[in-house]
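agent> Task received from the user: take the single chain below, predict its 3D structure, and emit structure tokens. No templates, no multimer pairing.
agent> Plan: (1) validate residues, (2) run structure prediction, (3) serialize to tokens, (4) report one or two observations.
agent> Step 1 OK, no nonstandard residues flagged.
tool_call: predict_structure(input=
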Amino acid sequence: MKIKMTDYLLGNNRKRRLRVYISLLALTLTLTFLPLIIKPLGDTALQDPFHLRHHQHPDPVASRAKHSIHENHLREGSSRDSRLREGKMESEREMRGRDAVSLRIEGEGERSTEKPEVILDYDAVFNTTTTRWPLVVFSTMGRLGNCLSSYATALTFAARSDVTIAVTQNIYESVTSLLEPSSLSLAVVSSELLFEAQDLGVAEVVQPDYLHDDMTSHLLPAVQRAAEERAKDATKRKIYILEGYPNRMKMLAGHHSKVRSNFQIRDDLKRKAMNFLDKIRKSSRRKPTFIGFHIRRKDYVKYSQKFHNCSLPSSAFYHDALDYYRARYAHPLFVVASDDLSHARQHLADARDVVFSEMSRPEEDLALLASCSHSIMTAGSFGFWASYLAGGEVLYAHLKGCSRTPWVHPDTVSGPGFERWREV
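)
tool_result: status=success, residues=424
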């Protein structure tokens, strides 16, 4: 006698047999209709590779993978810059947690007056009609001075480009440690979106010539190429990421009003700087003219020797610069800030008209120097921006015989707006 498999497995238990039959029927229906459900989603994913990644619920495994991509990107960037950083030693600053960003996405016609306070994520970039594709994003791994330079350089391109010019989240978070967020006008793209765009192949990283310290010649060709692509197809979604340390300050010539309108120092920092200066003013018998003096040392000593083949300014420059202002003003008082205050104190010990900064953070030092009437600087982007924002006369060391042009040099601080910059 033949025995059915179900009878063999279940015996004469009718309830158990019924449950098995219902399960088999459900499995058959699922296998029949599942392809019809999956196909539309597959078509959508093909049309927009960002779609599923953006709208699906967070996946712990995917989140760990994305974090790994983030770390790999930073390691690759560090390796890529190793030739430059052998001398420069510019480490990536720790990102400061700030929730708000002031941005302005410029439309096809007049600029929008609304400035929503949000770092641009997927929706703000891809699900909007105001992004002028391609999107060009300025990026740097540098600290405060380098981030200010990148932001200012991006501003000069935004004023004359038909594509959307933006900066990275790292640049924004760095510059807003010093500047008022509400004064900044460029769009800010989230780090997560940039990593994902690179992973999906819709972002192109454009690198400078690090070996020859050429940090600017790659910028204009990339922006021009983006503009040409826009002219051919204004809907093509592509992101250009322009890396490097823009260090040719003559690019700012003719754009000073735009830069200064954006670079408004935070009120809390200005108050702290003025309290420091007022305390000194009250202790002085005469009304002083404050001269900010920034002395750059530490990693820049090795960088200048190995990369520029020349040395940083010596104490002879310090005293020549002090004597210059002493001859011009009745009561100059020099406010000194440095990344090596022990060196500064040692070489300025005999100067009775010198006071040293008591600030604890870089942005506080920069705000203090920018609150002075005139400036002295030795080298580097930090000293440049302290002098630039002070807005008065600037003395800088003319380093001669260098194999490569230093950051601040007669060739780099030239053109309209730099008339009061003088080398010693």
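agent> Step 4: summary for the user.
The first strand starts at residue 135 and ends at 138.
agent> Done.
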